[in-house]
């Protein structure tokens, strides 16, 4: 039985009536979408939105996340005029306070980044903090930053205003209507079934579904067979009684004391991000949950409250009106989930907003709607793309442990290379114990434990985080120099490995990639998957294993996204695509002495004639067998040895034993990053993304427009015709001391023209190196290089050399030697 007022067909069904669902409905209707239906199990905003603090910050960790946050802030400033529903948005500004020298460095680096991203920001002294926020105790304050355009709003009203905007343009919103199931056909949801509180039920046939179900999104995802890794945690704040003559105050963040403060209607709201949070609701969120709160746990938040009373003494002089504890969703990496769910062709996700839902909702809704409209990401959304999540990350035990940390990480020191402490050791290379015994210090990516550097004998194998030269600086240097002058071995088993085989394998890979795939067996092709704009969706090597089979090798972090991209472009091709990542380990043996080392453990011929650069050969190694791929991401002579996981330890032991006579050094991935930047090799997600045109990224050599048609070819031809408007430039600091991490502003003749997309120390070159895009419409290489360049490192402008070619071995002779 269906209620008369709920239609039985829609173009899109949005599940969840929090601020995110309302924003998606608002933006889809703004794009002219009709038949937009939003279903909310209780009342709009009754899950998390209603109790959000409503801080509206603009600066986020990357350029595009900042772009989205800025968009939210601008939207909320004008929404009332359009919808008639006030958002309570006030541009009160925001101050973040540092209590340590490390935090000061972090804030000043963020401040430099803000300048590159076009966000107004001022670095301010303790005295200036006192002027802008007279109630704050300045004891121990080292510095601060002030963002005049930041603000705050009324979360519930922002959601209702967005909802009104959507309904005015025809969206239908049904509250008290719970989604009970989905009808699935292949990789599509064809209908959503619902039940209203008074017992009516029905089904809406639809073209698309958007899961905006907040802390219910993991369960809603399961209805569609989609992985949405998130978990609620308790989030605490208190609200004081009215404080006479408080006046408008900026938002105040004191991350070193895990606290934020917001003035609201003459009261102070103090919110907390404690280091060890309390996950909630994993055994099920009560069906009755609606505008509910959880019992406050005084012991849990007392330490933070004590610090806050010291920092803002008026808290101790004012009564507390409300102790609030409400659940909010957190994700494994503190980034929200947006986009088309892998495995499905019409299930979209916008969920897991990690306590920044209000400030993110406007931008996230806009980006998702545009993505749904175009069928392609409007710009790089890799930070939040749901496809970055690995299947195991939906595991309950993993999530429960991980989110207990990620809540607190919001305000922890964001040191470079900081690793998560929880939920570790889940994906391990078969060499893991060998590496650990040899002093490896691991970092985690996509669940993989990867050796980042090796401690010396007697050195504690642990990170000591710092903004200055870290405790592993000299270790990485020794590893780097071994690769440049001798031979090093590092474990790349975390590479994604995807086998593509079948009668149409060549035709399919020619269609989906820019490289020529009709090559002899054993050839390795470095290439990209492009979108219709010529932007880079994936950066891969593809090895022809046999007449009918290829191996696509992808970065660990993008394996699922790259596999998904291929599956979505199969069309009528007869191919089988299989993830074989776990089947083979990869040992990279690199450096000018790598040939000698391999020759000492293998009867095969590693000469240029037998195994030239860009080819793979089957080899015997020790008493095992493997495949030697002659490629390099560090810019040296070398091989990646692909060996089945059962023989990996044997091959490692063989190489290590033989390596003694060749000065073999075990190396980690910090070395790899420094080496690849010296060599100008791009890294997907940083230097190349879906919004970077392959020609502007300098990778025109890897796409062959003279082959058969391929996806993105027209955009490559068009760009050849119209000319480049931006180019990627490499930089080397003149001063050997400062460190680059990425996101530092690039100055050309004293003006900001871009930011670094990568940065690391180039131990071979003796200074920090980086790369980033600058605008260059109508300019020749000579014009670009005639300027003077510098990089803003935490507010200090450091002169830099610029180059359009790699600083290290521009001819590539070393790799091909
Ligand atoms: N929901 C609290 C947001 C905290 C922040 O913007 O810093």
Automatic annotation (TrEMBL):
Transmembrane feature ranges: none
Domain FAD dependent oxidoreductase: 11-371
Pfam family, one: DAO
Keyword list, A-Z: Oxidoreductase
Limits of the FAD dependent oxidoreductase central domain: 374-429
This enzyme's EC code(s): 1.5.3.19
Domain GCVT N-terminal, chain residue ranges per copy: 431-707
Domain Aminomethyltransferase C-terminal: 726-809
UniProt-listed InterPro entries: FAD-dep_OxRdtase (IPR006076), FAD/NAD-bd_sf (IPR036188), FAO_M (IPR032503), GcvT/YgfZ/DmdA (IPR028896), GcvT/YgfZ_C (IPR029043), GcvT_C (IPR013977), GCVT_N (IPR006222), TrmE/GcvT-like (IPR027266)
GO molecular function: 4-methylaminobutyrate oxidase (demethylating) activity
Family, similarity comment: Belongs to the GcvT family.
Name the record gives this protein: 4-methylaminobutanoate oxidase (Formaldehyde-forming)
């Amino acid at each position: 039985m269906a209620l008369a007022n709920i239609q039985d067909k829609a173009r899109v069904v949005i599940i969840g009536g929090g601020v995110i669902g309302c924003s998606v409905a608002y933006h889809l209707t703004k794009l002219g979408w009709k038949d937009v239906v939003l279903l909310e199990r209780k009342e709009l905003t009754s899950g998390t939105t209603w109790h959000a603090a409503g801080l509206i910050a603009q600066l986020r960790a990357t350029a595009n996340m900042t772009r989205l946050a800025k968009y939210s802030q601008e939207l909320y400033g004008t929404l009332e005029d359009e919808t008639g529903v006030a958002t309570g948005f006030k541009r009160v500004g925001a101050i973040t306070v540092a209590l340590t020298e490390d935090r000061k460095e972090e804030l000043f680096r963020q401040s430099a980044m803000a300048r590159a991203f076009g966000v107004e920001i001022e670095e301010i002294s303790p005295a200036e903090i006192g002027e802008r926020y007279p109630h704050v105790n300045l004891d121990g304050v080292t510095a601060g930053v002030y963002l005049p355009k930041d603000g705050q709003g009324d979360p519930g009203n922002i959601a209702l205003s967005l909802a009104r905007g959507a309904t005015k343009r025809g969206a239908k919103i049904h509250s008290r209507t719970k989604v009970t199931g989905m009808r699935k056909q292949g990789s599509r949801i064809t209908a959503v079934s619902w039940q209203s509180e008074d017992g009516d039920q029905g089904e809406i046939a639809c073209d698309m579904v958007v899961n905006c179900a907040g802390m219910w999104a993991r369960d809603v995802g399961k209805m569609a067979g989609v992985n949405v890794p998130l978990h609620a945690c308790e989030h605490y704040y208190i609200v004081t009684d009215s404080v006479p003559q408080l006046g408008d105050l900026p938002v105040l963040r004191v991350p070193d004391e895990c606290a934020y403060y917001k003035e609201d209607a003459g009261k102070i709201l103090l919110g907390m991000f404690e280091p060890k949070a309390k996950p909630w609701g994993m055994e099920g969120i009560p069906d009755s949950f609606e505008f509910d709160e959880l019992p406050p746990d005084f012991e849990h938040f007392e330490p933070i409250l004590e610090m806050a009373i010291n920092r803002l003494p008026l808290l101790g002089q004012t009564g507390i009106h409300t102790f609030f504890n409400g659940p909010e969703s957190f994700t494994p990496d503190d980034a929200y989930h947006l986009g088309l769910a892998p495995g499905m062709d019409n299930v979209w996700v916008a969920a897991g907003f990690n306590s920044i839902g209000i400030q993110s909702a406007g931008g996230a809704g806009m980006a998702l709607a545009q993505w749904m409209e175009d069928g392609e990401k409007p710009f790089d959304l890799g930070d939040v793309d749901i496809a970055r999540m690995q299947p195991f990350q939906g595991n309950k035990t993993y999530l429960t442990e991980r989110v207990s940390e990620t809540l607190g990480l919001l305000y922890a020191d964001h040191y470079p290379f900081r690793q998560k402490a929880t939920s570790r050791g889940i994906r391990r290379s078969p060499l893991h114990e060998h590496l650990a015994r040899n002093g490896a210090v691991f970092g985690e990516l996509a669940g993989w434990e990867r050796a980042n550097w090796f401690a010396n004998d007697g050195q504690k194998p642990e990170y000591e985080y710092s903004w200055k030269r870290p405790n592993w600086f000299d270790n990485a240097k020794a590893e780097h120099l071994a690769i440049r002058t001798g031979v090093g071995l590092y474990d790349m088993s975390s590479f994604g490995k995807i086998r593509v085989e079948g009668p149409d394998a060549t035709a399919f890979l020619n269609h989906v990639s820019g490289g020529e795939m009709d090559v002899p067996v054993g050839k390795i092709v470095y290439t990209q998957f492009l979108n219709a704009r010529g932007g880079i969706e994936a950066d891969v090597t593809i090895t022809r294993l046999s007449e009918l089979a290829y191996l696509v090798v992808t970065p660990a972090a993008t394996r699922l996204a790259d596999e998904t991209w291929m599956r979505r472009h199969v069309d009528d091709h007869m191919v089988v695509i299989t993830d074989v990542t776990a089947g083979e380990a990869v040992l990279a043996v690199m450096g000018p002495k790598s040939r000698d080392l391999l020759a000492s453990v293998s009867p095969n011929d590693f000469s240029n004639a037998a195994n030239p650069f860009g080819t793979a050969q089957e080899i015997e190694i020790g008493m095992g067998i493997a495949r030697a791929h002659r490629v390099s991401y560090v810019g040296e002579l070398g091989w990646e040895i692909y060996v089945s996981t059962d023989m990996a330890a044997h091959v490692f032991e063989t190489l290590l034993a033989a390596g003694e006579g060749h000065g073999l050094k075990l190396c980690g991935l910090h070395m790899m990053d420094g080496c690849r930047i010296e060599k100008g090799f791009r890294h997907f997600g940083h230097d190349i993304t879906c919004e970077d045109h392959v020609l502007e990224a300098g990778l025109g050599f890897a796409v062959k427009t003279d082959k058969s048609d391929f996806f993105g070819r027209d955009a490559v031809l068009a760009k050849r015709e119209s000319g480049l408007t931006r180019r990627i430039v490499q930089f080397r600091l003149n001063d050997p001391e400062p460190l680059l991490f990425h996101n530092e502003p690039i100055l050309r003749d004293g003006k900001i023209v871009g930011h670094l997309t990568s940065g690391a120390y180039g131990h071979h070159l003796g200074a920090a190196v980086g790369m980033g895009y600058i605008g260059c419409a109508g300019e020749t290489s000579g014009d670009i290089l005639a300027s003077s360049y510098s990089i803003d490192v935490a507010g200090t402008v450091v002169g830099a050399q610029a180059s359009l070619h790699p600083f290290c071995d521009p001819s590539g002779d070393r790799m091909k030697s």
